Here is the input.
Amino acid sequence: MNTLKSLIYDGSFNGFLTAIFVAFDEKTRVADIQKKSASQSGLFSETESIFTQMDKAQRVWNGIDKKSHTAIQDIYFAFLSETKGVEMLLYSYIRKMFASTNSISSDFSDGTVLKISQLARSVGREKHRMEAFVRFQLTKDNIYFANIEPDFDVLPLISKHFRSRYADQQWLIYDFKRKYGIYFDLNKVEIITLDLDSAYTNSINKSVHFGDEEYNYQDLWNNYFKSTNIKSRINLKLHNQHVPKRYWKYLSEKKAV
Amino acid sequence: MSISFERIKEKLNILADAAKYDVSCSSSGSVRKNNSNGLGDSSGMGICHSYTEDGRCVSLLKILLTNHCIFDCAYCVTRKSNDVQRAAFKIQEVVDLTINFYRRNYIEGLFLSSGIFKSPDYTMERLVAVAKKLRLEENFNGYIHLKSIPGASDELMREAGLYADRLSVNIEVPTISGLKLLAPDKKHEDFTKPMLKVKNEIIQYKSEKKIIKSTPKYAPAGQSTQMIVGATGESDKDIMYSATHYYKNYNMKRVYYSGYVPVAEDSRLPAIGTRVPMLRENRLYQTDWLLRFYGFGVQEILNNDHPNLDMDVDPKLGWALRNMEYFPIDINKADKNVLARVPGLGMKSVQKIISARKYRKLNWEHLKKIGVALNRAKYFIVCDSSKWEHRDMEGTKIKGLILQNSVGKFRKEYSTQLQLFS
Here is the structure.
């Protein structure tokens, strides 16, 4: 009597958790879980639209968290990887988890568990990278502004780090790839969108939004970076491995002056 | 650009260039919460904000306060007799640079060292003044690493630890005889006295904190030191026994090894242009790790029969090949400290094996997926499989097979085979 269904959610993590709730609650035979923006109807399955409901999402979160804190973190991080098909992988992980009496998050000889843990690790690495590679530029309006293009959707993960570190300055970190940012106004962090035509990279062309003092500091940093290098130990391979080229355009120390 | 920025830039170039031979750039191990809505918050995890083209982490603004120096240590670029440009920062200039770099997320904090001008105390006083200003006037919770100036008074060392996260004195020359040769103005005690003071203060503050919660932190990231490698004729055994001495007697958090980069012509030292012994430096760090995290004793790896580390294999593999009676080890049964001795198993793999084997017995396929370096490990372990690579092979045979089937980043430095045909 149960037909195969594809669940379509709004793309948010809470939407995904609501879909999981529905799947368990209605004992749905799930063919696929897809973002609305990327949905394709399957030939042999019906589709069901999921409306994000915070209370249902919260129940799923709590249920998983109670079984294993590592698991809920791995699930959230892996979700943010935006990997194609990650929803079904997570669904199968969660089913395994509830079917088992023990925690499964460290069963690395299981393919699904290993894959989720690896995805979570990649996202964790990108989070750490962004905590390192964000370069604020002080605007004339006294806001420390940075734009980034991370491989994964890590803004929700780095917010807390910057909030506690830069508590006495206004800052804004904008994800140019995903077209949204987080802004701290000295009281709270808000999600914002901006009308940006192009990103503010480390181009040698100066922008009117930043003052002389800002460019002076970028210049000092760029100089420092060169002075602290030991030429007789040069190892560009290692350098590129630690600072992959795709991040260079936002790093003032990599500006070609 | 304004005149003052041009002047700062010039100073920064000189004083960063002179500070770069200090290899420590650690910013971890100290938790400083931003409770006062000030600037900075350290969670205890270090962050490398960039990497230089030589592949080293850039975590801190690493500069000298000045490169004027009254001493003439042969190995040091800042030595009195070296003909280099000299400069000195004002205290406020260092504070401004640190704050402005930190606000832009360039750095985790400051690593301030200095040439010794006028006297050790005069110099130490100024280093402390920078740290004090950052903490008390700028409400700065980022990381501060101060150099303990050899010969500085106990009183100043006590104050330094109240503002700094880490303190360090570089012993530089691993042996006392080498020190006499290369740094005739300095006495061994000049280095050890501030170390001892810092060690005792750390112990005292820690024990007071247990009783009175409001006791301030004292150098919470501990102290470290650095030794130059390859400047004088010391063996790896000399270096590692000396390092062990400092870990044990001064509770060092870290000992750093720095392959000597020739900075001035001096008959006592390798000539300018001599290659930096980077492979040797790498092997010393591997040994250091084995001692600190893998449960090895220094005499197991280096002793009178083996005073120097193998260059062609890492020190753990070297030890294993000399101690074949210890193997094979059963992956599904062995304790953590036994697994840690298997070549090709890092502590992360060890942890994963211990977690994963609770669910099922592990075979070669599982180990490969987990990320074990089987090309080395397979000769030393058995698992849930009848296939066993070790059989009755001699150590030398295994070594040959491993070298044949692997690519090391330093391979060209010890490969002699190629030279036969070139």
